[in-house]
Design a protein that fits this description.
By secondary structure, the chain is of the alpha+beta class. It is 20% helix and 40% strand.
């Protein structure tokens, strides 16, 4: 009975297969296809909730979020550049992975690791939207939404115990939302020093992996494990506040010299000065300045009719580069009428000083900078000064940014202790960046006035504008931190020419300096008092010795 049923089954299969193929061919030839209806386009407001939910994941961010802008032009640029970007990115991947592969050769019986094929394919990535963020810093912040469903050809060859194992990456899809920061902005092409990249959220990565022709991602549980592992590893490296910094310009080009210390100068005395007056005497005074500075020189008092003056006067100068800067000392004879005669000069390189150690210099005065001038044999007297260099704390002057081409940076903030905050002299730097919407009734030629502890400093006047950009820095050397003090800033406008009521008040602001002392720096925009819409942008730093 079993044999008979088996024979009947084989006969039925042999007859049924040809008959089924013949019947299917007949219907395929003689049946008429149904007409395909064109889809009816409908506006979004006519769709119900279920239809919108189905479409929502595919709608670009520039449609869903008003902060994001449409960048078709950028996608067109990426499409045209993709063949060249493919080669450049692949070359970069090879150079970055070679040292990583080299670490594993010889371990676990691995003989070689190399790329059999490495290509990103023909389908470029697509930017679904771009948001530009405004900050008070010298930087440009971009937040693109990037999607890439590509057809890459990435094959990794692993030689293990004389066996050749190929691993191929297929069906790669990536969605990532990075934050790209171009900083600092500098007046040298390409106008930014570094590119800082971080991820705002964990990336979505979907792919298949074929080993020896079989898709191992089909193994139950392996796909979810790989997904979680990739997200966790990428997040630990580049999820904000972790960043990847790529150096574009040389650090020496980007770095702006900031104050690094204070030079304490005591002009003690001078002896045997030249006689310049008719009565056989002189009225000497000393001018002090540091090389590389545009600030006005500091002056001692004038000692009338004295060839051996005693000053014992103290001054403070701001140092930016102690290895290259030089202290200029010039002794002049004061004249009530006409120019002042120079009695002599001398130079002291700051690199001769040891931090926090006072050193006395007793120097012969020279006629000019040419020390070996054979005609300069005349004795011009001597000058005695005492110098002390006090550098700022290291954590308050360190430069941001990597020194290498690539660097992963972890964000962190080292705050000074309370004892360091409340003690010690320091430098208060006030940078007036600019103002917005400052409007006068009669004219718009704005300038800013900074008032602090009886000192008044002014920016330059910019004509015919409501949005001036000054970018001027003023410095105040203080003996103690300015706790519970305020700095007063006014914005004025001045009419050019000699006209009645030439000045006009445009607004003012009082800034509390307590936060500056505790944090070391603030960089904010403040609404001007007595101004309708005026805003002023001020950056204040406090660095301690």
């Amino acid at each position: 009975m079993g044999l008979l049923s088996t024979l009947l089954g084989i006969i039925g299969f042999g007859i049924g297969v040809p008959f089924g193929l013949l019947l299917g061919f007949f219907f395929f030839i003689y049946s008429e296809p149904k007409p395909v209806k064109e889809p009816i386009p409908r506006p979004l407001y006519e769709l119900d909730n279920s239809a919108l939910l189905d479409l929502l994941p595919d709608i670009p961010l520039w449609v869903k979020c008003p902060d994001y802008e449409r960048v078709d032009w950028l996608n067109k640029f990426v499409t045209d550049m993709w063949p060249y970007l493919d080669k450049a990115i692949c070359a970069r991947i090879r150079s970055m992975t070679e040292p990583i592969f080299a670490e594993y050769i010889g371990k676990f019986q691995i003989e070689a690791i190399e790329f059999g094929n490495l290509s990103l394919g023909t389908l470029p990535l697509e930017i679904h939207g771009l948001k530009v963020c405004e900050t008070n810093e010298k930087e440009l912040v971009l937040e693109p939404a990037v999607r890439w469903a590509g057809n890459p050809n990435i094959v990794l060859v692993l030689k293990l115990l004389s066996f050749r194992i190929t691993v191929q990456l297929v069906d790669l899809q990536i969605f990532v939302a990075p934050r790209i920061t171009l900083k600092p902005l500098v007046p040298t092409l390409p106008c930014f020093g570094t590119v800082t990249i971080s991820l705002l959220e964990k990336p979505d990565v979907d792919f298949g992996m074929s080993i020896l022709g079989g898709d191992i991602m089909a193994i139950p549980g392996l796909y979810q494990f790989v997904q979680k592992t990739i997200k966790r590893q990428v997040a630990s490296l580049y999820l904000w506040p972790q960043t990847l910094e790529i150096q574009i310009l040389d650090a020496a080009t980007v770095a702006v010299k900031k104050p690094v210390g204070i030079l304490h100068v005591k002009v003690v005395r001078a002896q045997k000065l030249l006689k310049k007056d008719i009565l056989g005497t002189s009225d000497p005074y000393v001018k002090l300045s540091l090389s590389g500075e545009r600030l006005p020189a500091k002056k001692t008092t004038i000692k009338k009719r004295n060839l051996n003056p005693e000053w014992n006067e103290k001054f403070k100068l701001i140092v930016k580069d102690p290895q290259s800067q030089v202290l200029h000392l010039q002794v002049f004879d004061w004249d009530k009428v006409g120019t002042h005669d120079r009695l002599g000069m001398q130079f002291i390189p700051l690199k001769l000083l040891t931090p926090y150690e006072t050193k006395e210099f007793k120097l012969d005065l020279l006629k000019h900078t040419n020390i070996i001038d054979p005609q300069d044999k005349k004795q011009r007297g001597i000058i005695v000064v005492e110098l002390t260099y006090a550098p700022f704390r290291e954590d308050s002057i360190k430069l941001d940014g990597p020194q290498d081409g690539y660097k992963r940076k972890e964000s962190g903030f080292d705050r000074p202790s309370e004892s360091e905050v409340f003690s010690g002299a320091g430098l208060l730097s006030v940078t007036v960046q600019g103002a917005e919407d400052v409007e006068g009734e009669r004219h718009n030629n704005p300038y800013a006035v900074v008032l602090f502890r009886g000192e008044t400093k002014k920016t330059k006047m910019i004509k015919r504008t409501r949005d001036p950009l000054w970018k001027e820095e003023f410095q105040f050397m203080l003996e103690e931190p300015p706790l519970n003090e305020k700095i007063h800033i006014e914005v004025m406008s001045k009419r050019t020419g000699f006209i009645f009521r030439s000045k006009e008040f445009l607004g003012n602001v009082d800034i509390n300096l307590t936060d500056v002392v505790y944090n070391g720096r603030i960089n904010q925009k403040y609404h001007l008092i007595n101004s309708k819409n005026g805003v002023i942008h001020v950056e204040i730093r406090w660095t301690t010795v």
